[in-house]
Amino acid sequence: MGEIASDGVDAGSSSSPTVVSKKPAYISGIFVKNPGVPIFLSVFLVTLFVTAAIFTRWVDVVIIPPLFHYCGDDGTYDIVFPDWSFWGWPEVNIKPWVQLSKDLEQGNLKKKWTEREPFAYWKGNTHTGKARKDLARCNPDGQHEWNARINHLDWRKGFKDTDLASQCTHRYKIYVEGNSWSVSEKYILACDSMSLVITPHYYDFFSRGLYPTVHYWPINERNKCHSIKYAVDWGNKNTEKAQEIGRAGSEFIKNELQMKYVYDYMLHLLTEYSKLFKYRPFITKNAVEVCSCLDKGMVKEFKEMSKVKGPSEASPCTMHPPYDAAELQSLLERKLNLTRQVETWEASGRV
Ligand SMILES: *[C@@H]1O[C@H](CO)[C@@H](O)[C@H](O)[C@H]1NC(C)=O
Predict the structure, then answer these.
(1) Residues annotated as region Disordered (predicted)?
(2) Residue at 80 is within a domain
C-alpha cells in the first residue's frame, strides 16, 4: 500500500520551500551592484533547487524497497502481512482472533439468518474516505429506501458498543474501505450474513482467495445505493442462495483464517524473504532489547490470551506454488467475470 511512500512525499513538499527561498536570497546579496544578475541567478537557482527536490523525491519513491504492510494495491509493491488485530486490539476492545472467532461463531447461533433484519448494515466512521461519505447517503431519507442502514460511530466517544459478536443481526453486512483497506473485513465476513463488498482497491494477505458471488456480493462503487438496493432485493427473493453466500464467506474465514494458518503464512513469507538477503543479519553485542514487557490492563490480558503456549504439533501447511502469469491472469479474469455478471443482472433490474 502506498501510505508510507505518500507520507514521505508530503514531508518532502513541506520542507523544500525553505531550502528554495533561503539560498537565492543569500546569493543575490553578493551581486547587488548589477540588479539583473541576482534576478537571473535567483531564477536559475530556484529552478535548480526545485528540480533537485523533485529528483530526490522521485529517487525516494523509486528506490524504497518493498515494505511489509497490512495491505497492498495495484500501484505499490508492499508485501502483505497479517495485521495487528489478530493479536487483539485493546484500544477498541477487540479480542485476539482465536477468542473472537469463537465468540463470533457463538454469536451467529443467536439469530438465524431468516430472523435477521432484511437490510444491509454498516457501522463505522463515515468521515474516513470518500467511499464512506458516499455510503452514508444510502440511508433512508423519507423519499428513497435503498435497503441500507448506515450508522456513524464516533471513535472518540469510546468503544463500549463495539461488541462484534452481537452485531450479526442483519442479513447483509456492508464492507467499505476507508482511507485504505479496513481491518473490519474478516469480522464482517464472519457474520454468516451475505457480505456486500463495495469495489475494493486494496487487498490484504487473504483477499485473493475470496470470490464474488461465492463468498460475497460485489457492490458497484460508482452506483452504491442502487447496487445495494439491488443486492438486498435479490437476497430477499433468493434467500437460499443469499444464505449460501453468507455461509461460504464465514466458512472461508473460519477455516482458512485459523491462527495456525496465519502463522504458517508468516513463516513461509519470512522464509522466502530471508532467501533474498545478500548479508547475514546478526544481533550486535551492544544491542538492547527494547521491550518484551507484558504491560498492564487489557493490553496485558490480550497478550496473555494470544500467547502461543507451545510449539505446533503439526508441520506447516504446504504453500501453493507461485502462480505463473497466465494462471494469475485467469484467476483475476474469473473474478472480473463474476462481478460483470452481477452488473448485468443489476442493469436488467430483475431479481
Ligand atoms: C471471462 O469471460 C469471457 C467472456 O465471456 C470468456 O471468454 C472467458 O473465458 C472468461 N474467463 C474466465 C477465466 O472465466
Answers:
(1) 1-20
(2) no
Please answer whether residues 255 and 101 qualify as being in contact, where contact means their C-beta atoms are separated by less than 8 angstroms.
no
Nearest-angstrom CA–CA distance, 40 and 46 = 10
Q: Is the pTM of this model over 0.70?
A: yes
pLDDT in tens, 96-152: 999 999 999 998 999 999 999 999 999 988 999 999 999 999 999 999 999 999 998
| Structural domain of 150 | 94-258
Nearest-CA residue for ligand 1 atom 1 is: 337
Strand ranges (E), the chain = 68-69, 72-73, 79-80, 117-124, 148-152, 170-175, 194-198, 202-203, 217-219
* 334 Cα: distance to centroid of ligand 1 (angstroms): 7
Pocket test for ligand 1, best of 337, 338, 344 (most atoms within 8 A of CB): 337
CB 194 within 8 A of CB 243: yes
**Number of the ligand 1 atom closest to the C-alpha atom of 337:** 1
CA of 230 to the centre of ligand 1 (A): 24
For a substitution probing ligand 1, which of 328, 333, 344 has the most ligand atoms within 8 Å of its CB?
333
How many domains are there within the chain? 1
Which letter does DSSP use for residue 310 in this model?
A: S
Residue 309 lies inside a defined structural domain of this protein = no
The CATH number of whichever domain residue 98 belongs to comes to 3.40.50.2000
The answer to whether residue 10 sits within a structural domain is no
